[in-house]
Amino acid sequence: MSKYCLEAIFPTSPDREIFYFLERETNKLEELAWSDQVLQRTVSIAGISSVNALRNGILQLSQPGDGGWKLYATSTDPHIAKIIANAWGDAFEEVVREGADIERSVLAIQTTLAAGSVTDTVELDRLSHDLTELQQSSLGIHPLLQITRSQKSDIQVIRKSSQGLYIFSGAMITLMITLIMVLLFPPKTESGHEN
């Protein structure tokens, strides 16, 4: 499990605009967490599984709208679940940071071009070319976004279903089987006849 928070980049605007900003950024990051780019990198880092297997039930993302993000992996082997969850967290963090770096570079080039301080046509062409290439690889991430993992080395292993649920289910199944057995095979009572 890995956690992430969208915090320090709130615009200084009315609450309504902050809400839409957070929703938009959260949606971008959620799409990115499930993107081929992140999942392929997860497979490469973990050295196990496949992108299709990750999408089909191995990976789970907590509701990002609730604040901190939690990236889960499920497996019958707790060690493998830890490896996959950690790999997903690493891959997500790397891709988001790379995306924010690209946006910062785009912003720097746009600022330089808008300032009009570059007059050399060769330099203008190079900057325009660099800007085009960066925009093509843009992930649309806010340039000031920073993510940090709150858990990396001490990832917790938890059961997908609580142990109490297993005990309760076992007790209910035993009760139902007992009731069915009593109804189908009622106990024989001895009738006492006197001669």
What does this structure look like?
- The protein has six helices and three strands.
- With 195 residues, it is mostly helical.
- It has one domain.
- A three-stranded antiparallel beta sheet has the order 1-3-2.
- It starts with a strand and ends in an 11-residue tail after the last helix.
Brief sketch in words of this structure:
The protein has 195 residues and is mainly alpha-helical.
**What order do the strands of the largest sheet run in, or round the barrel if closed?**
1-3-2
Helix fraction by DSSP (H/I, runs of at least 4)? 55-70%
Q: Shape, please?
A: elongated
Give the number of helices. Answer: 6
Domain count, please report it: 1
Average per-residue pLDDT, rounded, comes to 80
Poorly predicted segments = 1-5
Largest sheet, in brief, is: 3 strands, antiparallel
Name a few traits of the molecule.
195 residues, disordered N terminus, mainly alpha
